[in-house]
Amino acid sequence: MLPAGLADKSAVDEATKRWWRWRDRDAYAMHWFATDIGAPGPSTPVLTEVLRGIADDAHARHTLMRVLNHEVAPKHLVTPRRLAIAAGRAVRRRPRHIASTGREVAAAVRNEIHRRRSARARPAEMNVR
Question: Residue 126 pLDDT > 90, yes or no?
Fold first, then answer.
């Protein structure tokens, strides 16, 4: 038996669309967060430093748990400031690899720009009203 208010097909359709929009909005950022953190192969120097920074900071660890529980978006954990600090640490630890670290940072910026544009360009039925 359907809950009250969902007995007619249009109400079910609308409720389902609202859920899809919520799910897509929630899953989009989490998908890319998981893709970046869990990429196959060895961890990149900047990502390694981001993770070290999170491990060394109680507030960041708490925020990571909130991200994993879908309470806050990953952008509240992996901030531009945290990335800049991680890039600086990566260069200090591996000064001979400054060019590859620079390429990693540039690629991360390009990916983020592409992701934000893609999120805005989604079909209208996927966007939140």
Answer: no
Domain residue extents for the chain: 17-122
Q: What angle do CA 94, 38, 63 make, to 5 degrees?
A: 90
pLDDT number for residue 129: 41
**What is the rounded CA–CA span in Å between residue 24 and residue 94?**
39
Indicate if the alpha-carbon torsion angle 96, 97, 103, 105 is positive or negative: negative
Mean pLDDT of 118-126: 63
pLDDT for residue 128 is more than 60:
no
Q: Distance (Å, rounded) from C-alpha 87 to C-alpha 90?
A: 5
- For residue 73, which phi and psi values (nearest 5 degrees)? -75, 155
Phi-psi region of 43 (alpha: psi -120 to 50; beta: other; left: phi over 0): beta
pTM of the model as a whole: 0.70
